[in-house]
Amino acid sequence: MRGVVFLGDRRLELREVPEPRPGPREVIVEIRASGMCGSDLAPYRAAPDTVLPIVRGHEPCGVVSELGRAVSEDEARIGQRVMVHHYSGCGRCKHCRVGYTQMCLESHLVYGSTVNGGHTSHMLVQPSMLVPLSDELSFPAGAAISCGTGTAYLALKRLAVSGRETLAIFGQGPVGLSATLLAKAMGARVIAIDIAPERLELARALGADETIQAGSLDPVAMIQDLTHGEGAQTALDCTGSAEGRLNAVKCAAIWGRVCFVGEGGSATFEVSPQIIHKQLTIYGSWTFSAVGQAECAQFVVDHRLSLEPLLTHRFSLDQAVEAYALFDTQTTGKGVFVRG
Questions:
Q1: Same domain? 18 vs 136
Q2: Is the Cβ–Cβ distance between 203 and 175 less than 8 Å?
């Protein structure tokens, strides 16, 4: 079988890799959809000598096709539609036992980042990583929930977003666009900020009440104008950039709440005037637990939300070079590889 392997310097190849065989406590998932995530761009762009030669894709979704001999029917069934929680840990520590295997106290693996992931035809996982996919959700929607949309959901939950508040979302990539859609379903008034007009158009289609094109406008001043001079009660940074993080803090109202989900980089704050004297609460939110992934999927179903406007591009694995070149422009919504 073939899998997408990053080479660095914005190059990749479809490489022949061995077809996996399950050990006693392992499962094979036949991949039907595997999403592209903004966090893929760091290894895609990285220096060649720093990139692991593994199959990428940490948003896998598909059908269970093979079980190890020690996997029970209560854990997995042949033909079962599943998403994959793309981490594994020791399975024994307190974080693993509540589904936050990425926070394992011993060590953890990230599928598609440190070991082979979902940009291929078949993927080897542990049964504890399987999250059932409702019949109401497509495989591409399940792939989106498996990282970007699930990450947005848990961040909004940390912020306790409600209909009482204005939420400013910095960055309208797949995570930020998901946050726009979900926050509207939670009742919030959403202000979407990005530098790309294409992504702001998508944000409006997903329900944003106001959009601000950063770079040409001062987003903090605009948010002040839109909130009667008070600032946003809640703010979410999905950019990972120093400017985005700083603006999320600066735009927040007194007693406001700010959450960071964008990875990488650093930021500098004037702690006293910008945080202490505003009595801000600042959260970090790192993806989600397996339980949270299932909860996000159920929220999407129960609120009859369509992720289709978010899923702007579908590709075959043969189009991987073209797909990542387009995704690297950071002007699109969610891109996903689909099979079957």
A1: yes
A2: no
Same domain, 232 and 157: yes
Buried-exposed string 31-45: b where 16+ CB fall within 10 A, e elsewhere: bbbbbbbbbbbebbe
Q: Give 327's Cβ-side CA count (13 Å radius).
A: 29
Domain that holds residue 183: 149-284
Query: Quick one: 133 and 260 in the same domain?
Result: no
Query: For the chain, what is the radius of gyration of the CA atoms?
Result: 20
H or E segment and range at residue 66: strand 60-67
- How far apart are alpha carbons 184 and 98 in whole angstroms? 28
Domain shared by 214 and 264, yes or no:
yes
Residue partners of 91: CB distance under 8 A and separation at least 6: 97, 101, 128
What the block records as the tokens of 127 is 């049964």
Span 57-81, pLDDT tens digits: 999 999 999 999 999 999 999 999 9
Looking at the structure, tell me whether residues 100 and 190 fall in a common domain: no
pLDDT in tens, 124-165: 999 999 999 999 999 999 999 999 999 999 999 999 999 999
C-alpha distances (whole Å) from 204 to each of 16, 184, 201, 211, 257 are 41, 11, 5, 7, 24
**189-194 and 166-170 strand pairing:** parallel
Q: Are residues 275 and 174 in the same domain?
A: yes
Check: CB of residue 259 under 8 Å from CB of residue 235.
yes
Instruction: Give the span between the Cα atoms of 80 and 83, in whole angstroms.
Output: 10
